[in-house]
Design a protein that fits this description.
heterodimer; A: mainly alpha; 3 helical TM bundles of succinate and fumarate reductases; 0% strand; B: mainly alpha; 79% helix
Chain lengths: 133, 113
Amino acid sequence: MRDTAAREVRPKYLNLQALLFEIRLPLPGWVSILHRISGAFLFLAVVWLLFMLDRSLSSQAGFDAVKRYMDLWPVKLGLLAVVWAYCHHFCAGIRFLLLDIHKGVDLATARATSWLVLGASIALTAFFGWKLW
Amino acid sequence: MNRVVTGAHYGLRDWLAQRITAIIMAVYTLIILCVFMLGLPVNYGVWKDLFAQGWMRVATLLFAASLAWHVWVGVRDILMDYVRPLGLRFTLEMLVLFTIAGYLGWTIQILWR
C-alpha cells in the first residue's frame, strides 16, 4: 500500500534512501559505476604505489623493507583492492572502447559482456593474488 | 554555448585523449605482464636493472604521462557530475591538478635518480 503511494510522488529526487533501496541499477550500470569508483580509487592509490616503487628502487635495504612491508596482511589486503580496481578498470575500459565503435550495444550482448567484465576482473584478481603470495 | 571556467572543452579532444591514453596504458600493462611472466627471480638486482634500461624508463614515463592526462579527464568528469558549487569544484580541480603534477614529477625523479 505504502509502496504504491510512494511510487506516485513526482518529481522523484535522488537521496541516500533512493540510491540504496529504491533505484535498481541494471547490470551494465553496475559495471559503469564500478568503473568510476575503481578509477577514483586508483587515482588516490597512486601515491601509495609510487611510495613503494621509490623505496624498492632506492637501495637493497629499501627493497627488503618494501618486501617485508608487503608481507603485512593489511598491506596485502590493500594491494588486492588495487589489483581488483586495476583489473576491473582495465576490463570495463576495453568494453567501453568496444561500445565506442558500436560493438556489443544490443541489450543481450551488453548484459553478457557485463557479466564477463565482472567475472574476468575477479578471476584475474584471484590469479594475481595467488601469483603474488 | 554557455562556457564556464571549470567545464570541459566542449569537443572531441579530451574524449579522444582519454581513449588513446587508455590504449597506451593497456599496451604497457601487457608488456609489463610479459616481463614478469619471464620468471626472473624477484630480487633487488633484477628489479634495479629492469628500471635502469632505457626502453623501460621511456615506456614507464609514457605510461605516467598517459595516466596523468587520463586521470585528469576522468576525475574532472566526476567533479563535474557530483560537485555543483563553482568555488568548491574549482578548488578540487586545482588540488587534482597539483596532485597529478606531483605524481608526474615524483615518477621522473624515481626513474632518473
